[in-house]
Amino acid sequence: MSFYELLFLKKLGSEKSGIQGVKINGTEIPPDANNKVNISTSSFFTSGTFVPNLICTAETGSTPTQPTYTGVSSWFYYLIDNLCYISFLMNLTVTSKGVGYYVINSLPFTSSSDVPEMGITLTEFNLSDGVLYSPTITMFVPAGTSTVQIENLNGRVQVDASLAPDNEFNLVIGGSGFYITS
Questions:
Q1: How far is CA 6 from the centre of its chain?
Q2: d(CA 177, CA 54)
Q3: Is-above-0.85 flag for pTM?
Q4: How far is residue 53's CA from residue 107's CA, in Å, rounded to a whole number?
Q5: What is the mean pLDDT of residues 31-35?
Q6: Which of 61, 62, 77, 175 is least enclosed, having the fewest CB within 10 Å?
Q7: What pLDDT, on the 0 to 100 scale, is given for residue 49?
Q8: How many other CB atoms sit within 10 Å of the CB of residue 62?
Q9: Residue 100: pLDDT above 70?
Q10: Strand, coil or helix: 163
Q11: Residues 6+ positions from 101 with CB-CB distance below 8 Å
Q12: Is pLDDT at 166 greater than 80 in this prediction?
């Protein structure tokens, strides 16, 4: 046993080595024969992929027009109890920009209505023609939805599709983060 392991165990008040188990919502998942806890074999863990959509939403009283695009989306999720981690990269060729505000739709789970906004780290937001919607772009999962809103920080104005080029353009959006599910 290393010095650091011994120090850690003494801090815990135990001279025992190994993991004692993990509790999720009061249910203990015991270690296996190798002293490892594998939550992926528990009923608290699921993972997979999903296919999101880039859509337009509109202000009350307005009617959005949906964008048309082709491209590749790479998305996956891990769900541990009600905490969902998502990671994604969309590389799209937009042939019709649509009317309204861009939103990413079809998350694998609906977010909790008890948590107002859950931030998603933006890793990439790029247009092929160099147009920049705002100096700072942010994304978040609103309460009680299965969407990611894309907004700028200047007054929390949503990214308006009318600012996109009229002709065909490439759009790359990437991000990752956690949100609480319902």
A1: 38
A2: 18
A3: no
A4: 9
A5: 72
A6: 61
A7: 92
A8: 10
A9: yes
A10: helix
A11: 56, 57, 58, 64, 150, 158, 159, 160, 161
A12: no
Q: Residue with structure tokens 């739709």? A: 105
> Among 137, 145, 162, 159, which residue's Cα sits nearest to residue 52?
145
d(CA 82, CA 150): 23
Bigger pLDDT: 18 vs 3: 18
Cα separations in angstroms, 132 against 111, 125, 127, 128, 164: 29, 9, 7, 10, 9
Place of tokens 């919607």: 133
Average pLDDT, the chain: 77
Cα 38 to Cα 21: distance, rounded to the nearest angstrom: 10
Characterize 88-111 residue by residue with b for buried, 16 or more Cβ atoms within 10 angstroms of its Cβ, and e for exposed. bebebebeebbbbbbbbeebbbbb
User: How far is the C-alpha of 104 from the C-alpha of 143, rounded, in Å?
Assistant: 14
Q: Taking the CA of residue 65 as centre, how many other CA atoms within 13 Å lie in the half-sphere pointing to its CB?
A: 7
The pLDDT value recorded for residue 142 is: 92
Token pair recorded at residue 134:
């705002």
In one-letter notation, the amino acid at residue 23 is K
Other Cβ atoms closer than 10 A to 164: 20
